[in-house]
């Protein structure tokens, strides 16, 4: 990797995080405006909102990375004791739980108490998703999407857009839930 590409990649990451912070701050403000009932075009964002939103985005990314690390560790621990047929369902369930668990953590931090109801709802959603994908995946297999050359070429971009959508929607709901 040359010095020029390092500078370009770090600049792109900084621009991405800045856009994520600005967007999260605006979506949080729009959630607050929806909560209080004033028009969304009155939302103004200052440097303190950007810093808070950027911290929110970076901390959630860290929670995602830690959760996936724990998921991989659990996967290797379970792999030694389970059959492959059972393991694929368990792995799918753990992946779904780890995808939704930051929502429980974030709302638990906002309310300063663990939300057991939301945790059980997420377990139920993860179970339904796992059962649906396990038994009905033959109708539309996921492997067909990963075999598309366009998806393989733009995989990193698709993941980053997914992060943006996730954080923007989550910031909006945080603004509505706890303004």
TrEMBL record:
The chain crosses the membrane at residues 12-33, 53-77, 89-109, 115-136, 156-177. The keyword Membrane applies. Keywords: Membrane, Transmembrane, Transmembrane helix. It comes from the Bacteria. This is Uncharacterized protein.
């Amino acid at each position: 990797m040359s010095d020029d590409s390092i500078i370009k990649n770090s600049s792109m990451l900084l621009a991405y995080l800045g856009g994520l912070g600005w967007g999260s701050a605006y979506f949080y403000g729009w959630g607050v405006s929806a909560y209080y009932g004033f028009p969304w075009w009155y939302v103004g964002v200052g440097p303190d909102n950007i810093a808070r939103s950027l911290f929110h985005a970076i901390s959630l990314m860290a929670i995602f990375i830690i959760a996936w690390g724990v998921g991989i560790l659990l996967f290797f621990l379970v792999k030694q004791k389970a059959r492959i047929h059972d393991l694929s369902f368990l792995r799918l369930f753990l992946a779904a739980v780890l995808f939704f668990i930051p929502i429980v953590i974030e709302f638990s931090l906002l309310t300063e108490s663990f939300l057991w109801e939301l945790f059980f709802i997420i377990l139920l959603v993860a179970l339904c998703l796992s059962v649906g994908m396990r038994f009905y995946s033959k109708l539309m297999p996921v492997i067909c999407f990963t075999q598309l050359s366009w998806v393989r070429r733009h995989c990193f971009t698709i993941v980053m857009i997914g992060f943006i959508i996730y954080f923007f929607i989550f910031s909006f709901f945080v603004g509505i839930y706890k303004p």
